[in-house]
Automatic annotation (TrEMBL):
Subcellular location(s) per record: Golgi apparatus, Golgi stack membrane
Family membership noted in the UniProt record: Belongs to the NAD(P)-dependent epimerase/dehydratase family.
EC number annotated for this UniProt entry: 5.1.3.6
KW Ribonucleoprotein (keyword) present: no
Major subcellular location class: Golgi
Protein name in the entry: UDP-glucuronate 4-epimerase
Pfam families reported in the protein's UniProt record: Epimerase
Subunit structure: Homodimer.
Membrane topology: Multi-pass membrane protein
InterPro entries assigned to the protein according to its UniProt record, in alphabetical order: Epimerase_deHydtase (IPR001509), NAD(P)-bd_dom_sf (IPR036291)
GO cellular component, one term: Golgi cisterna membrane
């Protein structure tokens, strides 16, 4: 649910404060050249500080949080390699060895844990960026660590790191879930979408293409590629050429890029178009999550309405259903066909919708939360802003049903009950309030 997909998390602005205190004290020693020198050194130092801290923030492109995440991470060395190997070690017969990108994310954590549970080897990769509260990502990391999944801290656009990982482990599969999610954040940080969803994805595919053997890749696309298309339900063959947000445009570009790597290099690629995924350990930038937080704080809840009082609705999909779809996609993926960067034959290329097939109005979402939280909600009806949110999503999943055996089984009421249970215990157990 897109508009609702984002918390505008304004990066802290640096403020330089002048101190009159320094000035009055310095006056007493004005004659002393030493004091003069000190004074001007301080002025000079402050100017340098102002230059470095102020000037980049006037250019939104330079505010890229990836300036921070592009710092060189601490990776490498024998102890690190041992952890990587042990985490990726297959423990069941015919198990896979899977690299999960975005493993500290919402979907990545659930998929990693499910793979590990059934005996596959799993190595996570995540840059722990601060698009939303990184302490939630750290808590998910702790959870995975307890089940033996190691998350390497690094960026998917770092080719040296990825090459190193493939040198240490011959991954059979890549589950690619790292991305810049959310719709409204593009107004604050457009570069992050290009960095992760385009440059990072290309870098990952480059390394996969050169790996020997090449892994099969399953990656997360999004229902947002259907954009302003209003023929419902959305089927895989429907047009996807009218993106309504930069997020959707980069997801759409990702699909084109995947097609290209499949065609040229023989990489086996499967794209999954998720429809508004929710559940325990979910994303704080999504409506069901921050509605819960705000309802508990007795804040009024905005309910968006399209033109002519049109209902805004989403095909909410419970995380366990999504995880089953992801595992089925991995299980049915064929091997890539290239070697040494050269295609040897045609390779598998698939795209599937993974939704719940029953759109629910946002007002119903709020009523369910109201009942579960036992708090009377004050509603504010507002017009849906035209900044990336579509009015309606509805998945046709018959292709995934036929080819993956995908069948969603959790309705919104049941799924939200599980979410609220997790939310209240997670944020009461000594952890500070979300966001
Ligand atoms: N949750 C949904 O409703 C939904 C809907 C449609 C599509 N998707 C897609 O599913 C995937 C997983 O989404 P999610 O809800 O778990 O989001 P999430 O933000 O919780 O997880 C993404 C993870 O990727 C990491 N990451 C981002 N950029 C990275 C980079 N350059 N290098 C390394 N790590 C990076 C982040 O730190 C984060 O932990 C994404 O591709 C998203 O676009 C999600
Ligand atoms: C991704 O990495 C490449 C190669 O290191 C670098 O040239 C490029 O600037 C990076 N792209 C982004 C958007 O960060
Ligand atoms: C759903 O998608 C399938 C193709 O996978 C198509 O044959 C079918 O007509 C679609 N159903 C509807 C109701 O659009």
């Amino acid at each position: 649910m897109s508009h609702l997909d984002d918390i505008p998390s304004t990066p802290g602005k640096f403020k330089m404060e002048k101190s009159p205190f320094i000035h009055s004290r310095m006056r007493w020693h004005w004659q002393s050249s030493l004091a003069k020198l000190t004074f001007w050194s301080i002025v000079f130092f402050c100017l340098i500080l102002i230059f470095f801290f102020r000037s980049p923030s006037s250019n939104p492109l330079l505010q890229d949080p990836y300036r921070r995440s592009l710092r060189t991470y601490n990776w490498g060395g024998p102890a690190w390699e041992k952890r990587v190997r042990s985490s990726a070690r297959v423990r069941s017969r015919n198990g896979f060895s899977v690299l999960v990108t975005g493993a500290a994310g919402f979907v990545g954590t659930h998929v990693s844990s499910a793979l590990k549970k059934r005996g596959d080897g799993v190595l996570g990769l995540d840059n722990f960026n601060d698009y939303y509260d990184p302490s939630l990502k750290r808590a998910r990391q702790e959870l995975l660590e307890r089940s033996g999944v190691f998350i390497v801290e690094g960026d998917i656009n770092d080719s040296a790191l990825l090459m190193k990982l493939f040198e240490v482990v011959a991954f059979t599969h890549v589950m690619h879930l790292a991305a810049q999610a959310g719709v409204r954040y593009a107004m604050e940080n457009p570069g992050s979408y290009v960095h992760s969803n385009i440059a990072g994805f290309v870098n990952l595919l480059e390394v996969c293409k050169s790996a020997n053997p090449q892994p099969a890749i399953v990656w997360a696309s999004s229902s947002s590629v259907y954009g302003l298309n209003n023929k419902v339900p959305f089927s895989e063959k429907d047009r996807t050429d009218q993106p309504a947000s930069l997020y959707a445009a980069t997801k759409k570009a990702g699909e084109e890029i995947a097609h290209t790597y499949n065609h040229i290099y023989g990489l086996s690629l499967t794209g999954l178009r998720f429809f508004t995924v929710y559940g325990p350990w979910g994303r704080p930038d999504m409506a069901y999550f921050f509605f819960t937080r705000d309802i508990l704080k007795r804040k009024p809840i905005p309910i968006f309405e399209a033109a002519n009082h049109g209902t805004v609705a989403r095909d909410f999909t419970y995380i366990d259903d999504i995880v089953k779809g992801c595992l089925a996609a991995l299980d049915t993926a064929e091997k890539s066909t290239g070697t040494g960067g050269k295609k040897k034959g045609p390779a598998q290329l698939r795209v599937y919708n993974l939704g719940n097939t029953s759109p629910v109005p946002v007002s119903t979402l709020v009523s369910i939360l109201e009942r579960l939280l036992k708090v009377k909600v004050k509603r504010n009806i507002m017009k849906l802003p035209r900044n990336g949110d579509v009015q309606f999503t509805h998945a046709n999943v018959s292709l995934a049903q036929r080819e993956l055996g995908y069948k969603p089984t959790t309705d919104l009421q049941t799924g939200l009950k599980k979410f609220v249970k997790w939310y209240t215990s997670f944020y009461s157990g000594g952890k500070k309030a979300a966001g």
